[in-house]
Design brief:
Blueprint lengths: L1 H26 L2 H37 L26 H4 L4 H10 L3
């Protein structure tokens, strides 16, 4: 009985060693190295995509939390200043996209809000 057990153990170890040796030899061939390189490149590409997606999600979350519009100008809902919605209006806001102190005083005198 002992001899049979050792025979099966030895045969199993031999098969295992042959399979591992064959895999190692295949991995070191040109095709094997190319396959491994493509696998690494795919992993890097997937990681880069995941990072970009997470970054975009976090940026959207932060913009919503702090009330920023997509171009980065804060949306001021109350107070003396107003966020400029139309860039085609006359005056200095058409050039810069922001109201100046002079524009704000003019709006206050005219009664515009």
């Amino acid at each position: 009985m002992k001899r049979g057990l050792w025979f099966v153990t030895g045969a199993g170890a031999g098969v295992y060693a042959m399979v591992r040796g064959r895999r190692a030899a295949e991995a070191l061939t040109a095709d094997g190295l190319r396959d491994r390189w493509r696998g690494v490149a795919l992993g890097v590409r997937m990681f880069r995509h995941e990072v970009a997606q997470g970054s975009a999600e976090k940026e959207t979350e932060l913009r919503e939390r702090y009330g920023l519009v997509p171009h980065g100008t804060p949306e001021l809902e109350t107070g003396r200043h107003r966020a400029v919605v139309s860039r085609g209006s006359a005056g200095s806001t058409a050039d810069t996209g922001h109201e100046t102190e002079h524009d704000t005083r003019r709006h206050d005198r005219e009664g515009s809000t």
